[in-house]
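Morning!

This is the sequence you dropped in the shared folder:
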Amino acid sequence: MKIFLSLLLVCFSLSAFAQTVGEVSASSTRMSPQTLKKLFLLKPGDAFTPETYDKAQDDLHNLRVFKKLDFSTTAQGDKVNISIDAQDGSYIFPLAFAAGGAKSAAGVSLAGGNLFKQGESTFLFVGGSQDGTTASAGITQGDDHLSVGYTKLNFDQRFYSGYRSNMFGIFSTTDDEDEYTNDLKGQVHSKKEQVSATYSHRFSRTVRAFIRPEYVRYAYSASGFDNGNHNQITLGLRLTDDIRQGTNMGALSGYGLTDKEKSLRNLPHARQGYAADIFYTGGGNWTGSDYDIAKLGVNAAWVLELKNRHMLIVQGKAQDAFKASFSDEVLSADLLTFGRYDRQIRGERGLGVGASFVYYLLRNNTGLLSLAPFYENAYVYAGGGYRAHSGAGATLSYKLWRFPLPVGLNYTHNLQDGGDLVGFIIGGAF
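The structure's back. C-alpha cells below.
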C-alpha cells in the first residue's frame, strides 16, 4: 500500500509540473506573423520542455534570413506563452569559385533567401571543367524541397589492375594518367548525359522522404559497354537530428548570424547528433531504360559534439547493386567521405566506414580555424572478392562567419596504392 501511494504521489507531482505551450505570438519585418508561427516547431497545446524549446529556436535560426531573433517566455499556470521578435530580410548574392589541380574547374552560384517572404532559400549553380558542364537550381520552403539538375560529361575512362578506374566528374580535378602509366590496362572514351529532378517532403522535424526521377544516357567509344539509356527512379527516407546545418549564404549579406553568440559559447554538456537514410534505385522498361537496374543503399552518421565544440564524426555507407550493368555498378568513392582520390574501385556491392575528429584551433567572432584528421576504409566486391580502398589524412580549413564557404587544404594518403593528394579549394566540399 505504501509503494502504491508513493507511485501515485510521484505521478501527481510529475503531472503538476508538466507544462504545455499556451499562446505563441510573433512579429517580423517582412514575413507575416502567421508564416513565422507556422515555421516555429512549437504550437499551442504542445508539451513544453527546455529541450524542445531550444530545438524550436534552432529551427528558426537555421532559416538564415534573420538579422535579429529574440525569444521570451511567460508562465501562466501550467501554460507557457512564447513571444518571438524577428527582424527578417531578403538577399540575393552571386559567388564565383575555382578548384585547381592537374585539371581545373570553375563555377558560379546565385543564392537567394526570403525573396517571397516565406523564409525560403533558393539557389542556381553553373559550373564546368575540361570534362564537361553542370547546372542545377532549387528551392526549399517550409517542409518542401524541389531541385533540378543537368550534367554532361565527356571524358576518358581508364582501367587499372585490381579493378580500379580513374575518378571522373566536373570537379574531379586530379589526373591519374601520368602517375599510373605502368599499371594501365586500357581506356575508353565515355560520354554521360543526365537530367534529374528531386522532390522531398519533411513529415516531422526528423523525418524526410524524397523521390528522384533521372534521365541518364551513356555512350562509349568501344563495343562491349552498356551504351544507351539508364533512366531510373530513386526513392528514399532520411532521419536526422542535431546535425549542424551547411552553408549560410545569407551571412554574405549580413543575415543568418543570429545564433553566432550561441555557437561560440561552450555547451553545458556534450551532445549527440545523427543522420541516417535508406534509398532504393530502380530502372527498366517501365522507366525507359535499356537495362534492368535495382540498387539498395544505406548511409548513417553519428556526431559527438563536446562541450568545447570539438566534434567526433563517425560514418558508414553500404550499397548493393542487385541488378546493374557496368555504368550503374557501385563505386568505392561513393562509400567514402573525407578524402580525395584519383582512382576508385568498381563492383557489385560495397561497404565503407570512416571517422574524423574536428579540432578547433581558433574559435572567435571572426571565424573558425579547424584541423580535422581522418581515416576511412571501403571494401567493394569485384572479380569474385572484396577489394580495399582506404585513406588517411587531414583537412585544415578556415571559415569566416561572414564568408561561410571554407578555405583550406586537404591532404589524403591512399593506403592501397601509396598515392598522395594535396588539394586547395575555395568553396565546395573537401
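Headline: The chain has four helices and 23 strands.

More detail when I'm at my desk.
O.
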